[in-house]
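Write out this protein's structure.
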Amino acid sequence: MTVLIVDDQIHVVKGILSGVDWETLGVRETYTAYSAYEARQIFAEHQVDILLCDIEMPVENGISLYRWVKQNQFDTACIFLTAYADFSYAQEAIRLQSFDYILQPAKYEEIQNAVLRAINRIRMTRELDKYSAYGQAMSENRNTLLDGMFQDYLSGRRSSFLSENALQLEPPLQKGQKVACALLQTIGWEKGEQEWNSDLLRYALTNILQELLAAYGLIPLVVRREADLYVILYHRENETPETKTIYRQLCELMKICRREIGLSMACYLGAALPESDLSSQVAELQKRKEDNVARADGVFVPEEPQEDEDPFFFESQIKRWEMILSGENAWLVREEIHSWLDQASADGLLNAERLKLFYQSLIQMLSVVAEQKNLRLQEFLHDPEILDRYLTAYGSVEKMEDLVDNVIPFFQKEAPEESEKQIDKVLQYIYNHIESDIRRTDIARELFLNPDYLSRMFKKEMGVSLKEYIISEKMKVAKKLLEQTKLPISTIALRIGYGNFSHFSQTYKRVMGVTPEEGRKNSA
């Protein structure tokens, strides 16, 4: 990677050069320029991957320089540095699709982190371009052969994972050679991130792993079995793969996926075994995946055997909840079950088998209390979506909590004053977090409510959707700040949780009927 630093102040350029650890970032060359003119000359002579550029410069500013870079189709990511929180600058930077916009003075650590994110994004983008341009057909053919060998081996049709003729591995994997195996499980994509198709994701993961593991002599083979991806790792010198090294690099893979493409994953790593013993390793990893009922992300290694505990250790809690549910305070049961499930998950007390036993006891309790209260569960379960949740809640802690959130209201017809109390808490949360990116799931988690139920309740009581109410309140605060202060508009946007200035401006105009600039002028 190469970086060009452009700033008309020499001490700023020297400070960035010495303050950022370029070697750690993997930057092989740093260039410097003190004007847009000098920067153009460097672009003419060198490949520039990342442009660190000041905006306010004499003769020609950084915005104009980056516009020229875009027009000439240089493959360069731009990080703007500026001491002025000017809204028009931010707007233009967003329009030009700059990678980041940092207000000076900024810590060198912040600049270094921005460069690291840019490097990871560039690598990811270039790998995907390579995949789209010429690698897809070759990759699919190789993957088909690899998957077929793996499936034949696991089904017993092949005694060894290897096949000399079907696939030439480079370097070769020897029969009996020790390999480590890891199972990759997709936990979820961040809101707003586009979900990648499985072939594209597999290609990207393969290339990232190759880069992360190459220095340690490790070769990764990424194979698919049904909906799961497995990583088979072997050493190019026929040495035993070291678990600690693999663990560290897999942790780095998880970070890159979360940071760069918004994907959370769980990775279950096994011990190094001869390649002919892979089948037992795969079965163990699949069991560990099923036992991750909390759907926690991260890298997990085999745990030491624990002393057996009573699988029905929750029965005393079930009896307590049955007693409370039979009374008038059903909401307390919902809160206690949430707390209990969260704590049991954190303590590692729940696996797939125990969660299923818990589910059976919970369903039995609900049926008993429903009969006591002359309630017909069939009325609650007439909705196919709710019925599906009811029947499959033992699959994960998240599903179990979702079931509890949906079924408890059936046992207690909420009094008007109780609903008002919940709404008051919601409004108070919004008021206390107006400067944040408020999400429905955050409010629901805070109040122990199901997100869907929260939305329905809020719309019923307030006559407007929760999302529109939050936006409206944020714009009211922005209007007051525009009228009563001289804060830059970009700062006001940040104060109400809008990091994207263009989005803030569009939203303000939609709600208030005028742009932020027009609103400020009208109040003058």
